[in-house]
């Protein structure tokens, strides 16, 4: 069993920054990756970024490249998503997930 808890969402003006956290507990998946997805109202959940627990290899959606950074702290079993230069289209509920487990999500709202 894996528990994932996201935090750090909130309301921010366009151009601002937020840092999301995803704390993992329970089983560990050293050979897996932690993913951030988001879901805006009326839209399907979409991939944002991922990072492998072991090598730290990262991938980003084209829409966030150069603005978002995913990084981790293995000692704390926590993955972060630093979001800069936020746009109104980044407004969504952000979820972290790994190996079929998902957190409850954290709301990010960017006002224009």
Biggest sheet descriptor? 7 strands, mixed
Kindly state the mean pLDDT as a whole number?
Answer: 94
Cα radius of gyration in angstroms: 13 Å
Low-confidence sequence ranges:
none
Query: What is the share of helical residues?
Result: under 10%
- Which structural category do the helix and sheet elements fall into? mainly beta
Strand content: over 45%
DSSP strand count: 11
- Helix segment tally: 0
Helix/strand order: EEEEEEEEEEE
- Shape descriptor reads globular
| Termini Cα gap | 40 Å
Please summarize what this structure is.
With 112 residues, the protein is an all-beta fold. The protein has strands at 2-7, 10-13, 18-26, 33-39, 46-52, 58-60, 68-73, 78-83, 92-98, 101-102, 106-111.
Helices and strands in order:
Blueprint: E1 2-7, E2 10-13, E3 18-26, E4 33-39, E5 46-52, E6 58-60, E7 68-73, E8 78-83, E9 92-98, E10 101-102, E11 106-111
Parallel strand pairs: 2-11
Antiparallel strand pairs: 1-3, 3-8, 4-5, 4-9, 5-6, 7-8, 9-10, 9-11
Please provide a written account of the structure.
By secondary structure, this protein is an all-beta fold. The chain has no helices and eleven strands. The chain has strands at 2-7, 10-13, 18-26, 33-39, 46-52, 58-60, 68-73, 78-83, 92-98, 101-102, 106-111. The strands form two sheets. Strands 2, 4, 5, 6, 9, 10 and 11 form a seven-stranded mixed β-sheet that branches. It has a four-stranded antiparallel β-sheet with strand order 1-3-8-7, with no helix packed on it. Strand 9 (92-98) and strand 10 form a beta hairpin. The chain is globular and about 40 Å long. The mean pLDDT is 94.
């Amino acid at each position: 069993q894996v528990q994932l808890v996201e935090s750090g969402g909130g309301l921010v003006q366009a151009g601002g920054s937020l840092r999301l956290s995803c704390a993992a507990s329970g089983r560990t998946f050293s050979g897996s990756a932690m993913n951030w997805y988001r879901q805006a109202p009326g839209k399907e959940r979409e991939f944002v970024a991922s990072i492998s627990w072991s090598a730290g290899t990262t991938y980003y959606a084209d829409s966030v490249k150069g603005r978002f950074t995913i990084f981790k702290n293995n000692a704390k079993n926590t993955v972060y998503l630093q979001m800069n230069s936020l746009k109104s289209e980044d407004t969504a509920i952000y979820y972290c997930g790994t190996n079929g487990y998902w957190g409850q999500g954290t709301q990010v709202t960017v006002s224009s």
